[in-house]
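Sequence in, structure out. First:
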Amino acid sequence: MPDISFQQDIDRYRALRIAPQGLFIDGQVMPAARGATLDTVSPIDGQTLTTIADGDTVDIDRAVAAARAAFERGVWSCTAPAQRKKVLLRFAELIEAHALELAVLGVRDNGTEIGMAYKAEPLSAATTIRYYAEAIDKVYGEVAPTAPQTLALMLREPLGVVGVIVPWNFPLMIGAWKIGPALAAGNSVVVKPPEIASLSLLRLAQLASEAGLPDGVLNVVTGRGSTAGEALGLHMDVDAIAFTGSGAVGRRLLEYSGRSNLKRVYLELGGKSPNIVFADVPDIKNAAKVSANGIFRNSGQVCVAGSRLLVQSSVYDRFLDELMTVTARLKIGDPLDLGSDIGAVSSATQLQKNLAFVARTEQEGGRLLCGGDRLHVETGGYYMAPAVFADVAPEMTLAREEVFGPVLAVMRFETEEEAVRLANATPYGLASAVWTSNLSTAHRMIKAIRAGVVHVNTYGGADITVPLGGFKQSGFGRDKSLHALNEYTDLKTAWIVL
């Protein structure tokens, strides 16, 4: 049973009017320099929630200048690690204190089901900020083993100004993965949120200021990728770009780096992740339930989604039966209703893309077992029934290209070698899973699968202590864990003759 009092709190935040939103630069809320705005349309009902500032090159220049000035003044970059730690811990506390407000704001913006959004967005962001706050005074430099007459030190220093560009599916969670280590290392940050999901990151910046983060250290410029995003990527005074999103945009950011100041670019570009079920799967009912959640949660709008289900032939039909049973029970509806298992697709554009994938797969001979159609049209919102395609051939578009929607490709395999071949037969390599009771099989598959993450007898759940990143065209950035700190620091050698 849904928690009635919690639902009432959700509904209270749902009812709040959202004022037009400005940019957050140098500790101040301000309009775009030329006064332009963008409508924020809620996928819940297709209605306009509010407007956000449509920032462009001038606004990016203002934000970068503020970030650079703060960095050079040393108000954050030269602050003692213990003091930075205090501010970030306070920041994490404020995120938790405003968790439901942030979660509902984000759901109204992007349609993620509230049960998932509450944990995955503000609570995850708070955990991330706290993790890097605690790491600040526990990461040491190194002393090289030199001759007695010399001393060699290896020092980690902040880069300067870091540009952060995040996607619309989990802007708070993914934003914190980048903002947290960048701030912990002493950098100043300029965030370009997704134009269709900017509200929660704007509120996050205000909370950071309230926590005591100095003006100019964290700035948020909303606007379109073609203007504000491009300006950030081309800016001569930005030292690094951390990006999660599409491969097409990732390639452009690499080009922008080459055309400007050779800034570092860290990319996480999505995937087409294989979820591999062997005949000796420990618990077939649980595996089917977890696998359904691994592709259909947040309407399939998850970069690590297990969008290719590979099942060994001897359990293929049984597993599909279990999967269909689980899928049939999923309730798709209002994402702010605790009774909904799946919320809305993020936008009308994304919904049409998903439906087009379904139509194309049917044209290519895919066998549609369920779903694939638009739901709740009368609400004006963007809802879609989870689609399951059986017997998908490796050459089909659905087996190769990322949908970023609730569309599952099910494939059959006979041998371990065939499973490996199918698993690696895409340009992507972000995540994967293996279900087996055989420890040797699990270890062989971990080594053989070309992916940054391999789950065993689960799908998802890896916490902040381990890195997330991909192989191949899934990019080469790493979010989470202490490893992420390396992306926001320069390594300096000091060679001292004694």
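Second:
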Amino acid sequence: MKTFFMIKPDGVKRNIIGDVINRVERKDFVITKMKMMQITPELAEKHYGEHSEKPFFNDLVNFITSGPVVAMEVEGENAVLAIRELMGATNPADADPGTIRGDLASKLEENVVHGSDSEESADRELALFFN
């Protein structure tokens, strides 16, 4: 199974790319595609399209376009759910120790990583970033 996984601008800026990737690889996932890129506002709006009517939509777009990201296709058993578990809760204050967000993130708005929340989202996000 494949999923989309991304290190957000705060993780890139803080130079923790290697730490995040190491955590993914230690869980026996294989990164089959990876690129560092600057997300355009147009791509960000498509990526976060399901949130377009929410009050925080512009903040999401502004943050994700504020610096480079590392976008990845990750393969492994039950990848969508397992990567979500490895990431930890969206709000770092609620994330368990040992998870990426629990150990490396400090605020909800800048929580280091993004991972697809379903197989459908994974297919859509992989197509957006790698096709």
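Remark: The beta strands are 2-7, 30-37, 69-75, 113-115.
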